[in-house]
Amino acid sequence: MNNTRNRNTKPNPLARPKRGPRQVQKKKESTLDPNLLIKKAKPTGQEGFQSKTSFTSLNLAKGVLRNLESKGYENMTNIQEQSIASLLDGRDLLGISNTGSGKTGAFLIPIIEHALKDPRQFTALIVTPTRELALQIEQEFISLGKGMHLQSATFIGGTNINTDMKALSKKLHVIVGTPGRLLDLTNRRLLKLNQVKTLVLDEFDRMLDMGFINDVKKLVGAMTQRNQTMLFSATLEASQKGLINGLLNNPVEVKINSGITTNENIEQGIIRVPEGKDKFVMLADLFQDRSMDKVIIFTETKRLADRLSKKLNESGVKSGLIHGNKSQNFRNKTIEQFKSGQTRVLVATDVAARGIDVADVSHVINYQLPMTMDSYIHRIGRTGRAGKTGHAITFVN
Fold it and tell me: How far apart are CA 374 and CA 347, in angstroms?
């Protein structure tokens, strides 16, 4: 994640800060009522996810239809059915739909169509809160645009700036990135946002949080030729309505879900940890159940994620690990190992809650109670995707 930092400050990474009694920060307490995290799944299967409308009903380029078919996509999902036609017409759009419901295709297909119509002039900017999500979106663009001579690049923290400079020396139809790196490239006058026509903010609710709002405003302000804006997310914060209104012009609003509730396809439950009981032992016991074959465990801190992954491996449960302190190459390799089944468990902080697109995650475990319902919704949204039933377990001390 590319949070903006004071560049005048150069902390010594080896120095351990000394804290006196007055400097110890009070531990943040979760605002969640654990009783709200107990919910029976109401599996709808493909209903509520997949529509009965074929992609062939749209006037799409033959190459796009061919690539959709090769990926096994025949019918649109509901978010796609209700979004794509308006986006092809150039409308602004606010889209709210559960994780794994096809939001990426909903904005990439119109972008590809617009790029094919005006390849010399068209450029779209897709901004995401996490590196993983940015990489995932570009891969989907490459597969959907295969054979159509459309160029793309991803700009994220933790990568070589010289590589970015080389990528920006050629015509790009799609630029994907995280706010901090995109703003850095803009400030260096390497990325010319006044040439960008289309803006997508994916997982915009997080983007408009305090950590990103100023970066986003600066990026938007530099897009003087912007004529289409799309905002997509699984959740919708009422407090962000003013910002949303300032970004969109007479938008189409598509809400497949309310933006404040969890996916109905997820069986949700809690495990209360009695005082004095070893929580890790309780966690390890869960893995006696072989149905827990692809599991993401979330922690609130990087340090705990490190410890948890190590202990799981020592106990015979193959585990990978990602958080903000890990290099991008490490994170990419870890996710690939999890996707391929080389590891059974992925331990992560919230850096992964919005950026991991892994099929068939059987369970999500909150080893610590999330701070907010918004965080909880995005975490457990890694399971129960594409109409399948998933399971979410939250430990409560």
Answer: 19
Distance CA 67, CA 52 (A): 19
Structure tokens given for 84: 């794509």
Q: In which residue are the tokens 């962000």 written?
A: 240
pLDDT confidence band for 44 (50 / 70 / 90): low
34-43+264-396 and 50-255 in the same fold: yes
Tell me the domain boundaries of the chain. 34-43+264-396, 50-255
Say how many C-beta atoms besides its own lie within 10 A of residue 287's C-beta: 17
Q: In the chain, at which residue ranges do the beta strands (DSSP E only) sit? A: 50-54, 75-77, 93-96, 124-127, 152-155, 174-177, 198-202, 228-233, 252-255, 266-272, 295-298, 319-322, 345-348, 363-366, 390-396
Contact 133, 171 (CB under 8 A): no
> 296 CB contacts (<8 Å, ≥6 apart)?
345, 346, 347, 348, 352, 356, 358, 361, 363, 364, 365, 379, 382, 383
Beta strands, E only, 111-243: 124-127, 152-155, 174-177, 198-202, 228-233
| Exposure on the CB side of residue 252, measured as CA atoms within 13 A | 19
pTM: 0.72
Give me 14's structure tokens.
């080896």
Q: What is the mean pLDDT of the chain?
A: 86
> Helix (H, G, I), strand (E, B), or coil: what is residue 245?
helix
pLDDT digits (tens, 9 = 90+) for 115-133: 999 999 999 999 998 888 8
Q: Cα–Cα distance between 351 and 129 in angstroms, integer?
A: 9
| Beta strands at 75-77 and 50-54: parallel, antiparallel or unpaired | antiparallel
Task: Give the pLDDT score at 33.
Answer: 84
Please check the confidence at residue 49 and state whether its pLDDT lies above 80.
no
Nearest to 356 by CA among 310, 295, 277, 292: 295
What is the per-residue pLDDT across 148-205, written as a single tens digit (0 to 9) for each? Answer: 999 999 999 878 889 999 999 999 999 999 999 999 999 999 999 999 999 999 988 7
Q: What is the domain class of 50-255 according to CATH?
A: alpha beta
CATH fold label, 34-43+264-396: Rossmann fold (3.40.50)
Q: What is the pLDDT of residues 322-332, one digit of tens each?
A: 887 888 788 88
- What is the predicted pLDDT for the residue at 107? 98
Integer Cα distance of 334 and 317 in angstroms? 15
Tokens of 381: 């949204």
The closest alpha carbon to 249, from 231, 229, 233, 232, belongs to 229
